Every structure is written in structure tokens, then in C-alpha cells.
Amino acid sequence: MTTADAAVAALLAHGLDTIYALPGIHNDDFFDALAKNAGKIRTIHTRHEQGAAYMALGAALATGKPQAYCVVPGPGMLNTAAALLTAYGMNAPVLALIGQIAERDIAHPVSNLHEIRDQAGIIARIVDYAARIHAPNDAPRLIAQAMRAMFTGRPGPAAIECAVDVWERSGPVRVVPPLPVRKAAINEDALRSAAKCLGAAKRPLIIAGGGAQDAAEEVTQLAHLLQAPVMSYRRGRGVIDDRDPLSVNLPLGRELWAEADVVLGVGTLMQYPLLHWGFDRDLAIIRVDADPDEPARIARPKVALVGRALPILRRLLEILPARNTRRSSRTVEMHQRHARMQNRMAKLEPQLSYLAAIRAELPEDGIFVDEVTQVGFAARLAFPVYRPRTFLSPGHQDPLGWGFATALGAQDARRDVPVLSISGDGGFLYTATELATAMRHRIPLVTVVFNDGAFGNVRRIQKERYGNRLIASDLTNPDFVAFAESFGAAATRVKSPAELRAALRTAFARRDGPTLIEVPVGEMPSPWEFILMGRARGS
Ligand SMILES: Cc1ncc(C[n+]2csc(CCOP(=O)(O)OP(=O)(O)O)c2C)c(N)n1
Ligand SMILES: [Mg+2]
User: Fold this and answer.
1) pLDDT value for 515
2) Ligand 1 centroid vs 266 CA: distance in angstroms?
3) Which ligand is nearest to the CA of 375?
4) Ligand 1 pocket, 457 CB below 6 A?
5) Is 462's C-beta closer than 6 angstroms to any atom of ligand 1?
6) Which range (87-91, 181-185, 427-431, 495-499) has the least confidence?
7) What is the DSSP string of 221-283?
8) Which of 519, 522, 518, 496 minimizes the C-alpha distance to 353?
9) Is 374 in the pocket of ligand 1 (CB under 6 A)?
């Protein structure tokens, strides 16, 4: 077998049916192996490597399954760096297959095509698992190890390099089946301490992060048992159904954090609470995290449970009822808190009305892909999410321009549900040329571009904090409708939430290609008082 054939066989052995990719001479043998296996693995080629990597990320986030992309070395690899970094920040199982110059030249640069100094070293700064294939028989072994690494401890991306002359090399190859992921044993002592502490808690609060997405039912059951509100902000949205009165947003979470005696963080960095809201001795913190180093990073918790949320919460649900005090329903109290918060946030218009229009048309299992834009900031606080993995938000990297291509990947991997991408005029143009990819591969993504003619967020800060000295924040845009139509996409312009609703209905009914909806908007009120809120307890 050639290395290239062995690598494709290894991807297939791990259940991959798609690869997002952009070809080039360094990987021609690998692409030929993909061509020979076209019936088993789809190759979705993009117009920029950034698009390929973000698509793999979107597919991984929407499915929870590993996804892969393949690009040429040097500029190709660097073009994917923002997406790979984002995948790392989001703990997403994305495998990067990256070409290399001829093996003998790697250590002795001679200005080869796409040469870059220490590519392996650069990649190793971005991901936790990186390796290079040196011979055909390495391919199945290294790909299997990478796949295991992507789900071991804190999940995340992995990268494998292969030199141009190694792809074509032939040799005996031993097939490696998927390697079992080591499961952390549950620390039963810690579990009992957690159950005792939670069972006795008077004002418990749960915080759900991205690591809780696969334990939605368990988090919800725990919340009901404890009558504990569940705060989720971005990566944890959808873990608890927002129609449940116990589901709370970030500002309500802060209010409850200030009052809490016990907080259970599930698969979350607890970044806002620990870094901004403060903590003290009266607050017992319990953490459930797949990464053993995470729980004590900012504040040492009273109890740390290391491992996947699902088995840990299932065990907790077994032993908690015997230790739980009698609790009365908090439904009435929570409704009052929600009503007060809704009143406070009502000034976020037109953001909230546009979000309501989207929610009214996006089916319950439809996927909403967030962006670094005004309507996105409001969505993180106020867009009702009903199911896990249906609200994709990029976590702490918050890379402008991730949304459209990530949403394309989500829609490509989940053809069975509608996917909706929102962008500002700034963010959309980062990867807007992937409209060609959407046309080519008939991806029925619906994209709403809120066009304020500006990097609005930056512009508002310049107005408010820098005496209206505007710089580099006003934008000259194309006619977005004509632009999308020039690719062959369906496109329309709407001027109100009601018009958006009607346009969305038409767009979701169209399943054979992409739709763009432009919404011209003006300046929007700042959401920051509901996000950057400052200290709530402690000194
Ligand atoms: C990769 C990257 N570059 C720059 C930024 C800084 N940034 C945050 S918001 C923003 C402007 C966004 O403009 P637009 O997409 O039009 O959204 P709007 O705020 O106008 O709604 C910028 C430049 C970022 N978050 N990520
Ligand atoms: Mg804008």
C-alpha cells in the first residue's frame, strides 16, 4: 500500500465519511487516494484553507464526531491557523492533515515551494497531539493515535504532517483499528463529598459549559433534584432547555452566583465567575472536568471530579437522592427573576426582535451559528436554545469571521436539519467566497448578514471611549444581494423582523443550495453591561 492509500483507509476505519480540503502538489498522491475512494469518503473542496478548517470545525461541533481537513504546508497550513486555534479553544475533535516538503529537505531549508521553518514546531504550539508520517506503516498507527488523543482527557484537535515524497512510498501496512480511549476512573470519595455538599446546599447553582453538551439530560435531572438554576452562556447553551425556568443566562447567573453557597461547574472554564465575579470562603466550588489541570487553574475547588461529565453525573444522580435535603420548587421565584431580567434587557433592540424572528422560524432542532456581531452578542444572552449542539458559539478565541464557514461545515455534516448563520458585514466577508463552495456542494445554509456599514462593535467603543475619534471601523461594502446572486445563491434584502421571518420561511424550504439574507441596520445599543459585569462577591 502507499502511505496515501493507508491514510485514507485509516480515516475510513475511524468512521470518517468526509474530508474538507484544498489540494496542491504536496498532497497530490493523497488526493488521488481520495479519488479512488470517492464512493466511501466525500472530498469537500473549499476556496481558501481557512474555509476548509472552519468547515471541519463546524462539522465536528454539530456532530460531536471527529472530522478532518487536508491542506498544503506553509501558507496552506498558516491559512488554517485561526480555525485550528479556535478548534483548540473549543476542545473540538478536528484532525489536520498537513503536507510537507520532501523529507530530506525538512531539516535543511533550501527555499522549496511552501517551505516554512519548523512547521512541526509551529503546529505543536497550537495543538496537543502532533506527529509526522515517515513511512506507509506509520499512517494507520499515527492516525489512530491522533484520533485517540482527540478524545483523551481534554478533547481537542490533532495534526499530522506527511512529506510529499512519503505519500507515494509503498510498503507493508498493518491496519490499526480505533484505539480505546482510556476512561478516567471515578474517584468515589470525591463523588461522595460532592453529593454531600450538593445535597446540603441551600442555594446551589450549576454552570454548564461545552463539556456538558453530551450530558444534557443528566444536568437537567440534577438541576431538578437540587432545584438549582443552570447558567450557560456560550458553549454550554442548549445543555438545559431554555424553556425550563431553571435555565438562566449570564447576568442572572451572576445574580445567583452572588447568593450561592455551592456551585457545580460541569465542563466549563467558569471564566466569567472566577475571573470577574469573585469568590470567597462561603462558596464551595465543585468541578467536573475532563482535564485534570483545569479545575484548580484559577481557584482551588472544594471537590474536583476528573473525567467525562456523562458517567460522573450518572453516578452522582445515583447517590445524591439519599443525601439531598427536601426542597421546594423555585419555579415561581425563577419566573420572577426572568421577568425582571427581560425588562432590563428589553433595550437591546432591534437585536431581540430579529432573534425572535429567527427563533420563530428555525425549528427546534435547527442549528444557530453565532458570530462576533451585535445580534450575536445578544443571542448569547437571549436566543432561546432547546437542545444540545444547536447553538455554536466560538468560545474564548471569539475569532471574527469564523461563522459563515463553520456554519457551512455544520450544515454539510447535518443535512437533515436547517442551519442558520448570522454575521455582521465585517465578519461575513472573511470567508464569503465560500459561497462558491456552498454552490458547488449544494449546501443549503441560510446566512443572515446584519449590515451596519461598520465594524460596529469597534466603532461604538471609539465613539464612547475615545471621544468619537473614528479609525479603521467604517466599511465599504459590496451589494451583498448582488454579490450572493453572482455566485448563483438565492439572496434577498429585508428591512424588519417581520420581513426577516417571511424570508427565513422561504429560505428554510429551499434545500438545494445556499441563501443569503441581508438586513440593513443602524447602530445598536451596547450589550456589554450584561456581559462584562464586574465583581459580585469576595474582596
Ligand atoms: C480575528 C479577529 N479580528 C478582529 C477582531 C476584533 N473585532 C471584534 S468585533 C469586530 C467588528 C465586527 O464587525 P461586524 O462583523 O460588522 O459586526 P458588528 O459589530 O458591526 O455587528 C472586530 C474587528 C476579532 N474579534 N477577531
Ligand atoms: Mg458591522
Assistant:
1) 98
2) 29
3) 1
4) yes
5) no
6) 181-185
7) HHHHHHT--EE--STTTTSS-TTSTTEE-HHHHHHHHHH-SEEEEES---HIIIIII---TT-
8) 496
9) yes
- Beta bridge mates, 45: 21
* pLDDT value at residue 183: 86
pLDDT in tens, 357-377: 999 999 999 999 999 999 999
Distance 374 CA to ligand 2 centre (A): 8
Q: Strands 262-266, 247-248: parallel, antiparallel or unpaired by DSSP?
A: unpaired
| Distance between Cα 422 and ligand 1 center (Å) | 13
Q: Distance (Å, rounded) from C-alpha 429 to C-alpha 479?
A: 12
Q: Does ligand 1 come within 6 angstroms of the Cβ of 497?
A: no
Residue 475: all three cell numbers together = 466599511
Cβ(211) to ligand 1 under 6 A? no
What is the residue whose three cell numbers read 472573511? 430
The answer to whether the Cα torsion of 8, 11, 12, 17 is positive or negative is negative
| Long-range Cβ contacts of 216-219 (<8 Å, 24+ apart) | 216/240, 216/387, 216/388, 218/309, 218/310, 218/313, 218/314, 218/316, 218/317, 219/266, 219/309, 219/313
Contact 264, 289 (CB under 8 A): no
Question: Are residues 417 and 367 in contact, defined by beta-carbon separation less than 8 angstroms?
Answer: yes
Looking at per-residue pLDDT, the higher value among 340 and 108 belongs to 340
pLDDT given for residue 522 in this prediction: 97
| pLDDT, mean over the chain | 97
262-266 and 204-208 strand pairing: parallel
pLDDT of residue 346: 98
Q: What is the pLDDT of residue 204?
A: 98
Q: Is the pLDDT of residue 539 over 80?
A: no
| Helix pair 456-465, 374-382: axis angle to 10 deg | 90
Q: Against a cut of 0.85, is the pTM above it?
A: yes
* Confidence class for position 139, pLDDT limits 50, 70, 90: very high
Residues with CB under 5 A from ligand 2 (ion): 424-426, 452, 454, 456
Atom of ligand 1 at shortest range from CA of 398: 25
213 lines ligand 1 (CB under 6 A): no
Cα 161 to the center of its chain, rounded Å: 24
Residues whose CB falls within 8 Å of the CB of residue 15, separated by 6 or more in sequence, listed in order: 65, 66, 178
Question: Residue 402 CA: which ligand 1 atom is closest?
Answer: 1
CA of 85 to the centre of ligand 2 (A): 24
CA distances from 354 to 104, 264, 359, 495, 522 (A): 57, 33, 9, 10, 13
Eight-state DSSP code of residue 202: S
Question: How far, in Å, from the CA of 175 to the mean position of ligand 1?
Answer: 46
